[in-house]
């Protein structure tokens, strides 16, 4: 990525030189990264082909018209990203570094808003707080401040995307060398000083990775701005598809990719130099921040945001469920196969994303090469393409190659779509972990006779495990709820929970939508619990 | 009809076999049946074991097809052409359905159960998305039949040259106005724009018969509701733009806002609010009122229709054979089955739509199809282009 690596920890400088020395990349991870980057960029082929078919005379009026949409999208992205950082970082700190009670429960609750499909979340907020909504009736008032527009869109967007920051920062805090904080404290630094000078630099890459995910998700989401009636760029893409103009939709999607590149550049610039690893990687003490009299307020604060994000849609879903399932629509009933299918594809996507992301994250964290940076950034491009456009692009690819590789309308293409959409979630999380591993440690293992693979397995892997698990968890949770690409690419007859939710919701059979939606939340919540209880990486 | 009896028994036996092997399937199959009878709150899940219900003498909801059962009293199926008199279906068919599974799932299942070596692979999606999908798939599209929720998407697929024209004998099931002039698609059921009103507050004569008069009707002040995000509503405004022009439509929208029209998220909610007395009247597709009535007997709600204007647009759902169909005859014959007496009766009783085959009557509480007066010079395929309508709705502050 061409940024200068800065060494702020004196003890690390020797090792740093050892790792920063090479612009010569190791062959195997480089080839693997190149293949992954090429694969996830493939869908752009279709977008470019479509865009090239737009008559050039239409281009100028088009771009002048869309400046307002672009400005709107950027404003929404900025507001959501900042708000997510302000929520996600303190939540992560409270649930990792303090003696907050019920940490595990709070961790699940804080991550869970991520599993709520944005259209359900937004719809629930409109039902609850919109005109003639639940709140208005309950309060018996004539009108409430409007939920529609920029404020509402930013609120809903933040509530359902801040977990990106939370999960990545949490992983960073978990694997942070806490002895550094002890050292700072010994040197008579205050808690705040220690936080600012030790913890912040340590979690900065993770916070940046999480914030980038928030920003690009906000950019690519169609459902929330549409329901909250805010004119974002995705709306134009959607309108183009709805007037059957796939050429224009392709061009507008590329415009979104352009904005993505701008945000990626901005993020690189904001992030500045990459830190930072301590001399004694993995050092841990049991020292946590004692909350004392702040325990109760901290618990309330930690509970408040997830509660708002979860209670509103849960209440609406339970309301639908209680209202019952009416007349027609019996074919909507849920079977266990829906759950298995959902968990199966989401699990496969998480596994594939972790494997494919590993070489990319490794190279980009370890080597100061431009190429490694390009591979890393390339994985983010597909993430910002709206799901509908990405779905059609893969339909095109799938049918084009069907002679050689019959993957169209199979589960494999679906998993590939999830990989393209969500790979950066795994890469971002893993990259942040790699950055915290002191290269001196695997070097030492090599000195002691391990092969490079062996050193990676026995030294690096345990240290980055939280980041790998965190990244895979993100992919899992978002795949569970992904709708537009699933709708487009699921083989006929392959039913998942989210397709059930959509089938019922779309036809106004809310009673039937409630059950699969609640099961979706339940299964995702359980998966979170499993993931968290598997975290056996508190290396002493 | 003896045929119906036989079929019912056959599918019931099959249902019993399925239910005994998989209780959950029985549970699934029974919801619709029990749901169609009583209060909506008593009809949710939890009907116990599937076999238990089935032995009560009722098959799954697929078994209801052709039975004449309906929430509004049973009726006999007369006229039309039964599936039994149609060419048999065999092989595998890929159906792209823009109509939702809750509405057509049981019908497709029923047709599958009728023929032992016939199977349908159904891909559900929004009609517009499926048209984009077929076009992107190009000549490798696996789609055999496209089943659309409106005429617009069918017209779009036909315009893109991606349909194969249907045989005359299939087109002839329905009157001219419910099919493509060049024979590329055929309407299978219809839905009318309507004005549901609360019968405690209004009588039918209180409702204007011209849509353009609504804003000037004092009695409606603060009493009306609509769902401007809903696609059928937007198609209705598109029709108004075509028929009355941009300025008149803008004035109408402004006038309705001055009338204090209240906004809902969908037209089922509008219809429910009318039945609750929260609204005196609203704009909605006709079948939502019947859905409300099916859920609660004696709800004080009835339907009024405007005349020969955008407020009385009659749109059709329909089927087309995709040009990539692997077997044109099989695909066309599947579409033919959607025009069978059983399927048409299903649309009438289960989705509360208008059958497009004249021999099959709509539900008795609906006016006959020739009592409606939809605008004559309107091309239905124009109604799916909603972009400018949405811009207008935003412009005047409705959206």
UniProtKB/TrEMBL annotation, chain A:
<keyword id="KW-1003">Cell membrane</keyword>
<feature type="transmembrane region" description="Helical">
    <location>
        <begin position="206"/>
        <end position="228"/>
    </location>
</feature>
<feature type="transmembrane region" description="Helical">
    <location>
        <begin position="509"/>
        <end position="532"/>
    </location>
</feature>
<keyword id="KW-0997">Cell inner membrane</keyword>
<feature type="transmembrane region" description="Helical">
    <location>
        <begin position="69"/>
        <end position="94"/>
    </location>
</feature>
<keyword id="KW-1133">Transmembrane helix</keyword>
<dbReference type="InterPro" id="IPR000515">
    <property type="entry name" value="MetI-like"/>
</dbReference>
<feature type="transmembrane region" description="Helical">
    <location>
        <begin position="403"/>
        <end position="423"/>
    </location>
</feature>
<dbReference type="GO" id="GO:0005886">
    <property type="term" value="C:plasma membrane"/>
</dbReference>
<dbReference type="Pfam" id="PF00528">
    <property type="entry name" value="BPD_transp_1"/>
</dbReference>
<protein>
    <submittedName>
        <fullName>ABC transporter permease</fullName>
    </submittedName>
</protein>
<dbReference type="InterPro" id="IPR035906">
    <property type="entry name" value="MetI-like_sf"/>
</dbReference>
<feature type="transmembrane region" description="Helical">
    <location>
        <begin position="147"/>
        <end position="167"/>
    </location>
</feature>
<feature type="transmembrane region" description="Helical">
    <location>
        <begin position="343"/>
        <end position="365"/>
    </location>
</feature>
<feature type="transmembrane region" description="Helical">
    <location>
        <begin position="248"/>
        <end position="270"/>
    </location>
</feature>
<keyword id="KW-0813">Transport</keyword>
<feature type="region of interest" description="Disordered">
    <location>
        <begin position="1"/>
        <end position="23"/>
    </location>
</feature>
<feature type="domain" description="ABC transmembrane type-1">
    <location>
        <begin position="70"/>
        <end position="267"/>
    </location>
</feature>
<comment type="similarity">
    <text>Belongs to the binding-protein-dependent transport system permease family.</text>
</comment>
<feature type="transmembrane region" description="Helical">
    <location>
        <begin position="300"/>
        <end position="323"/>
    </location>
</feature>
<feature type="transmembrane region" description="Helical">
    <location>
        <begin position="377"/>
        <end position="397"/>
    </location>
</feature>
<feature type="transmembrane region" description="Helical">
    <location>
        <begin position="106"/>
        <end position="127"/>
    </location>
</feature>
From TrEMBL, chain B:
<protein>
    <submittedName>
        <fullName>Extracellular solute-binding protein</fullName>
    </submittedName>
</protein>
<dbReference type="Pfam" id="PF13343">
    <property type="entry name" value="SBP_bac_6"/>
</dbReference>
<feature type="compositionally biased region" description="Low complexity">
    <location>
        <begin position="40"/>
        <end position="62"/>
    </location>
</feature>
<keyword id="KW-0732">Signal</keyword>
<dbReference type="InterPro" id="IPR026045">
    <property type="entry name" value="Ferric-bd"/>
</dbReference>
<feature type="region of interest" description="Disordered">
    <location>
        <begin position="40"/>
        <end position="79"/>
    </location>
</feature>
């Amino acid at each position: 990525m061409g940024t200068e690596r800065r060494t702020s920890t004196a003890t690390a400088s020797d090792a740093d030189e050892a790792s920063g020395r090479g612009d010569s990349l190791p062959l195997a991870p480089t080839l693997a990264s190149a293949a992954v980057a090429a694969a996830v960029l493939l869908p752009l082929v279709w977008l470019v082909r479509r865009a090239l078919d737009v008559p050039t005379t239409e281009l100028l009026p088009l771009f002048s018209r869309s400046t307002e949409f672009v400005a709107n999208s950027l404003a929404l992205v900025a507001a959501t990203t900042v708000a997510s950082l302000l929520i996600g970082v303190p939540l992560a700190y409270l649930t990792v570094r303090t003696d907050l009670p019920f940490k595990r429960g709070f961790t699940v609750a804080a991550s869970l808003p991520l599993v709520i499909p944005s259209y359900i979340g937004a719809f629930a907020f409109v039902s609850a707080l919109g005109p003639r909504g639940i709140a208005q009736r309950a309060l018996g008032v004539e009108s409430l401040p409007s939920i529609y527009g920029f404020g509402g869109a930013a609120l809903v967007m933040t509530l359902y995307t801040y977990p990106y920051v939370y999960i990545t920062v949490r992983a960073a805090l978990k694997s942070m060398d806490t002895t550094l904080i002890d050292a700072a404290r010994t040197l008579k630094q205050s808690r705040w000083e220690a936080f600012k000078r030790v913890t912040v630099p340590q979690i900065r890459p993770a916070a940046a990775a999480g914030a980038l995910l928030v920003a690009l998700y906000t950019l690519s989401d169609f459902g929330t701005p549409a329901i909250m009636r805010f004119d974002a760029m995705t709306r134009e893409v959607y309108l183009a598809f709805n007037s059957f103009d796939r050429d224009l939709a392709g061009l507008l999607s590329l415009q979104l990719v352009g904005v993505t590149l701008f945000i990626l550049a901005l993020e690189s610039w904001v992030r500045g130099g990459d830190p930072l690893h301590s001399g004694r990687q993995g050092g841990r003490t049991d020292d946590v921040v004692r909350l004392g009299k702040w325990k109760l307020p901290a618990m309330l604060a930690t509970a408040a945001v997830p509660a708002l994000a979860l209670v509103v849609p849960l209440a609406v879903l339970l309301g639908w469920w209680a209202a019952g399932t009416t007349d027609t629509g019996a074919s909507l009933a849920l079977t266990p196969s829906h759950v298995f299918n959902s968990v199966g594809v989401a699990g496969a996507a998480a596994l594939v994303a972790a494997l494919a992301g590993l070489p990319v994250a490794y190279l980009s964290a370890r080597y100061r090469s431009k190429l490694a940076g390009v591979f890393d950034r390339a994985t983010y491009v597909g993430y910002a393409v709206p799901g509908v456009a990405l779905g059609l692009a893969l339909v095109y690819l799938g049918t084009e190659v069907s002679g050689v590789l019959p993957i169209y309308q199979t589960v494999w293409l679906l998993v590939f779509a999830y990989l393209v959409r969500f790979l950066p979630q795994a890469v971002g999380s893993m990259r942040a972990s790699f950055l915290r591993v002191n290269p001196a440690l695997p070097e030492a293992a090599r000195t002691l006779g391990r092969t490079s693979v062996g050193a990676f397995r026995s030294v690096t892997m345990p240290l980055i495990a939280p980041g790998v698990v965190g990244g895979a968890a993100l992919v899992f949770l978002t795949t569970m709820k992904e709708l537009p690409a699933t709708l487009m690419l699921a083989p006929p007859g392959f039913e998942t929970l989210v397709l059930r939710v959509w089938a019922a919701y779309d036809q106004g059979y809310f009673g039937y939508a409630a059950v699969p939606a609640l099961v979706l939340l339940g299964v995702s919540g359980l998966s979170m619990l499993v993931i968290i209880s598997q975290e056996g990486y508190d290396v002493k | 009809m003896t045929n119906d009896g036989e079929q019912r028994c056959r599918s019931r036996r099959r249902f019993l076999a399925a239910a005994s092997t998989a209780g959950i399937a029985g549970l699934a199959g029974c919801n619709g049946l029990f749901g169609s009878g009583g209060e909506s709150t008593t009809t949710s899940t939890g009907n116990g074991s599937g076999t238990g219900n089935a032995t009560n003498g009722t098959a799954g909801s697929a078994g209801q097809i052709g039975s004449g059962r309906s929430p509004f009293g049973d009726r006999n199926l007369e006229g039309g052409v039964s599936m039994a008199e149609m060419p048999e279906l065999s092989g595998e068919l890929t159906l792209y359905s823009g109509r939702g599974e809750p509405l057509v799932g049981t019908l497709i299942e029923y047709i599958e159960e009728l023929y032992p070596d016939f199977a349908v692979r159904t891909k559900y999606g929004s009609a517009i998305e499926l048209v984009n999908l077929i076009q992107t798939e190009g000549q490798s599209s696996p789609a055999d039949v496209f089943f659309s929720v409106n005429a617009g998407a069918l017209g779009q697929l036909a315009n893109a040259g991606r349909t194969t024209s249907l045989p005359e004998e299939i087109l002839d099931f329905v009157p001219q106005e419910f099919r493509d002039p060049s024979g590329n698609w055929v309407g299978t059921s219809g839905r009318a724009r309507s004005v549901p009103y609360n019968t405690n507050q209004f009588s039918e004569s209180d409702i204007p018969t011209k849509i353009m008069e609504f804003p000037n009707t004092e009695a409606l002040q603060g009493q009306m509701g609509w769902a401007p995000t809903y696609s059928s509503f937007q198609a209705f405004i598109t029709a108004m733009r075509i028929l009355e022009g941009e300025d008149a439509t803008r004035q109408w929208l402004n006038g309705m806002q001055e009338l204090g029209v209240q906004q809902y998220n969908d037209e089922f909610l509008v219809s429910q609010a009318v039945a609750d007395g929260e609204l005196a009247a609203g704009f909605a597709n006709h079948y939502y009122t019947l859905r409300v009535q099916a859920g609660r007997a004696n709800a004080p709600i009835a339907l009024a229709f405007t005349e020969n204007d955008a407020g009385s647009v009659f749109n059709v759902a329909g089927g087309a054979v995709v040009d990539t169909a692997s077997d044109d005859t099989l695909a066309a014959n599947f579409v033919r089955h959607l025009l069978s007496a059983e399927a048409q009766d299903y649309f009438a009783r289960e989705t509360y739509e208008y059958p497009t085959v004249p021999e099959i009557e709509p539900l008795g509480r609906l006016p006959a199809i020739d009592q409606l007066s939809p605008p004559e010079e309107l091309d239905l395929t124009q109604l799916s282009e909603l972009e400018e309508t949405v811009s207008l709705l935003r412009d005047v502050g409705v959206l």
